[in-house]
Amino acid sequence: MTVSGFDRLHSQLSKLEDMFPGCLTEIVEGSIVTNPVRPFHGKTILRVATNLEGQLAPEWALVSDVAFPFDEAHEFCPDIAVIPAEAEAENLSSYPADLLEFVAEVVSPESIRRDYEIKPRFYASRGIANYLVLDPLKGHCVTMWNPGPDGYRGRDTIPYGSDLTVDSPLGKLTIPTAHLPVDPKVGRPS
Is there a contact between 122 and 76 (Cβ–Cβ < 8 Å)? Predict the structure, then answer.
């Protein structure tokens, strides 16, 4: 697909988001996927993004829910992403996936397979050193590292409750997890 093809498709996705307020729209495996955004999802993004933003060097910027086309069948809108500040200053609704330096996704009931199985393959294939899955449904964070062509070779699952430190190309990033929301059906991990 050409850049103009991506622009046209992104424009169509933007119209869908306008038609379905409170939903996030992405292209995954060639299908347009629209998911409702829940309060725990937004609260997790806000708390983690606020914390991370203060740790970034001035040449990096945090973005959320903007589009990153990977190929004709995949355009992701990461919940939390870090790109060069110079690119972020352009204030676009879509950026090349090669700009991504760090990505975190927050799991919702509808996104489990995408966040744990599909997106890691694409993020790793672009050489993104660290990918975090923040999961309020299970009360844990999965950190992935050592990207390869088929996904990440390293993976740890850390229950919410303590600080998570990630050694990334951006430096050491610390994410407090004790106050991240956990689905009441699961309860806070002990």
Answer: yes
Q: Which amino acid is at 178?
A: A
Q: Is 154 exposed, middle or buried (0-12, 13-18, 19+ CB in 10 A)?
A: exposed
Look at residue 49 and give its three-state secondary structure.
Answer: helix
H or E element that contains 42 = helix 39-53
| Mean pLDDT within 36-57 | 87
- Structure confidence by residue, pLDDT tens digits, 157-174: 999 999 999 999 999 999
Query: Are 160 and 177 spatial neighbours (Cβ–Cβ below 8 Å)?
Result: yes
Strand order in the sheet with 80-84: 60-63, 80-84, 102-106, 130-135, 140-148, 151-159
Pair of tokens at residue 167 = 């050694």
